[in-house]
Amino acid sequence: MRNLSNRLGQSVHLGILYGAETVYLLKERPPRGHSGFTDATPATDVGVRLPAHLTANGRAILAHSSEAHLRAVFPRPGDLVTRTGRGPRSLAELRNPAGTGP
Q1: For the whole model, what pTM was predicted?
Q2: Angle at Cα 73 formed by Cα 67 and Cα 79, nearest 5°?
């Protein structure tokens, strides 16, 4: 992760799915002054828990989850909360965020 962070000049995260949340386990930042360095992710520090369907890390994990797993994690329609009015509000939107495809 450190090598990837240094090469990209970006923060790199490792998180897991814990219920309906993403839990961040590791975070690597490139050295300050690194060419192209930006760190616009203060909310993703180690130990932070966020709704999985509202994070890139969580969405990547959920994209590879079965329908049965998604229904178990989000059993009620109101379980897909939004914080800013953005993000999926149903399992169909979670599975198909662009509104295209099956």
Answers
A1: 0.74
A2: 110
